Amino acid sequence: MPTSEQTDFFGMPDERGHFGPYGGIFVAETLMEPLAELRQAYQTYMQDPQFLAELDADLANYVGRPSPIYLAERLSRELGGARIYLKREDLNHTGAHKVNNTIGQALLAKRMGKRRIIAETGAGQHGVATATVAARLGLECVVYMGEVDIARQSANVYRMKMLGAQVVSVESGSKTLKDALNEAMRDWVTNIDDTFYIIGTVAGPHPYPAMVRDFQAVIGREARQQIRQQAGRLPDALVACVGGGSNAIGLFHPFLGDRSVAIYGVEAAGEGLETGRHAAPLCAGSSGVLHGNRTYLMQDGNGQIIETHSISAGLDYPGVGPEHAWLKDSGRASYVAVTDEEALEAFHVLTRKEGIIPALESSHALAYSFRLARELGPEKIILVNLSGRGDKDMHTVAALDGIEL
Amino acid sequence: MSRIGARFQQLEQEGRSALIPFVTAGDPFPDMTVPLMHAMVAAGSSIIELGVPFSDPMADGPVIQRASERALAHGTSLRDVLGMVRRFRENDADTPVVLMGYLNPVEAMGYDTFAREAAEAGVDGVLTVDLPPEEADDLLAALRPQEIDPIFLLAPTSTEERIRRICAAASGFVYYVSVKGITGSSSLVISEVAARLVEIRRHTRLPVGIGFGIKDPETAQAVVQIGDAAIVGSALVKRIEALVDEPDQIPRAVAGLLQEMRRYMDLITPV
């Protein structure tokens, strides 16, 4: 395997969607041609100045980009270590980074003449971001969501319905994000003529991992400029949470060539890696094929996908984007895991010290950045992707405190 | 010649077409599968397609998803499925068996180990639903020395270029998915399928099986007037599901539908 020094990270994936041994296209024959059409459209429009101008205008005027970076001064001082900057994706319209991608894919859907949008969702953030752009463009929208997630993210379910989306409860398998993805794929294969499937993360068959990354890379492009302006130099480390890995790859990708910048992806250790009740395929899984690509998976010895556990619905996924699998193997990025308990603590710390309520997903990245800040010391700079805000998690956190809202 | 090739040749000489039932191995429990396979052969089946249960059957409708869940509740693994084929072979040396499933259990076992153990068990063909020929080189290289036929899907959306490529990689037969959708979803439209079959036959001399959407004897009869085999899955699995509480009745119920299909199919002269 080539080492990190020899690798052209910006040339990935290859024409057939491979990131080294990962990625690719593993779907039933019926989807092969629709995926080829999508690939073609995507390649065409990403070089079309008119399309790009429309995308940029939407990101500026509808999403509110650029999102700021913010030096968490009080937090950094009290931790007594490196200075922590937050990339404020929580300030985007709809409250998370997810909308960067749904805006892009919905514009693509419109160009391709599709009148119906489908999506899968875990925490509901991607579902809300999809329902939002569908409402704006006047497209029919169906969102698939696991029964378990519907129960723990009821506020987002209601938001999607208000936006005019139909939310379909998925009751097969583990009734969470992976099953919602299966169900969305089944819908797509049945309705390919008029339907565009907006995948919410950097997983799925090619071109999704590359396409979603390219739409999310606006995070890293902005952050790289902003940190140079504000801190006068590049950061020493990047930290982002990884479920499927879209906010992480969005931040990481523009920095891959900056060898002085260490990169950390933070998975959900749930109740602890040693308990087996977690959602950390990169830290504790093995290679396999699921949802159209080869990547690291949580699976048993017979190749069956096993149930994951995380306090945050958005990280509760047994796979991970193939580019992360490649970055791990190549050594360019390191992947670590943070437990439910550590994430919750970070959630409360940021809320109390900075007046920012983070999503439970982003709280995983925060928890690891606290640890890292103490290790690195005050001369260093850490840039954390605050991928979403915590309003959606009020019920979960309150319930843990024994309070019913 | 492979058992699959020999079976199609024999059918051609008899002037009959192939009936290929699909059931999920281990559904509703592992001990049912081998007796059920024998019952299906006795009912006039030509080739048995045995589903390997998978936790995330993305291309399957609710009926076969639930069959997978029932089988997995008993822990039915790919190795267990190979054991069932081995036991089936003790009393049936002729009926070809095709494994149909998803790639990940095969990956977990390792391609070479899988191919060797499958051949030893008496498997004749392998269809991995989520493995298009573009990604199949390594698995094909493992199956070839064991003389296991790789079966590939063709779909209503397949371009001429893809049909050519898939037929070049396949052996045994090719499987035409007659509807855009998942297993058990909707009924096929014979005129549309017929037009596609003409196109497919331009690129291959392999027998063409038609599956997805064959619910009753009438449809089975209609498809073998244009194709070489009728592949029936969800309609059988539904009968199994209806009898999970009276499993003794399952072999007879499944065989009953297959006999009717066989009878209807034998009324016409195949293509």
TrEMBL record, chain B:
Its EC number is 4.2.1.20. It is an enzyme of class 4 (lyase). The keyword Amino-acid biosynthesis applies. The active site is at E49 (proton acceptor), D60 (proton acceptor). Coiled coil: none annotated. One of its GO terms (molecular function) is tryptophan synthase activity. One of its GO terms (cellular component) is cytosol. It comes from the Bacteria. It catalyses: (1S,2R)-1-C-(indol-3-yl)glycerol 3-phosphate + L-serine = D-glyceraldehyde 3-phosphate + L-tryptophan + H2O. Pathway: Amino-acid biosynthesis; L-tryptophan biosynthesis; L-tryptophan from chorismate: step 5/5. Keywords: Amino-acid biosynthesis, Aromatic amino acid biosynthesis, Lyase, Tryptophan biosynthesis. SUPFAM superfamilies: Ribulose-phoshate binding barrel (SSF51366). The alpha subunit is responsible for the aldol cleavage of indoleglycerol phosphate to indole and glyceraldehyde 3-phosphate. Tetramer of two alpha and two beta chains. Belongs to the TrpA family. This is Tryptophan synthase alpha chain. It comes from Sedimenticola thiotaurini.
